[in-house]
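Example record

The entry below shows one chain as it appears in the dataset: sequence first, then structure tokens.
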Amino acid sequence: MQYQLTINGESRTVDAEPGTPLLWVLRDELKLTGTKFGCGVAYCGACTVHVDGYPTRSCQTFVEDAVDVQITTIEGATDKIAQAVQAAWREKDVVQCGWCQSGQIMSAIGLLNENPKPTDQEIKDYMHGNACRCVTYVRINEAIKLASEKLEA
């Protein structure tokens, strides 16, 4: 079946069976491989994209539910907040294996969109559910605080 999706500001026609997770449409059909498969049950956050500006697990979002919404993947995360988060990620040297990082970054962007000056506890609460096998949580927290400071300056 054909679906018309808006991904990273661009209208895209995709062929997929109903019930196909958006994750597989992004990765397999559109070759947007920055969004990662982690667990398949929306627990780890590796597959996080933005749907209408909100962090959403693409492994549990079906292609038919992604019509008439704005989808942003890590490849399309280029606004001021995204740039600040990505710069802070590099400055704090957050990445180790990198598998969870696009999901972590997309969640951090969502947090700073909603709350530009989060406390440590607010960061911890918001980022809960984004798993990092390398356990870089301290650096993730520091990078989010740094991005917040960069945006405030």
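Notes for this example: The first strand starts at residue 2 and ends at 7. Residues 137-152 form the longest helix (16 residues).
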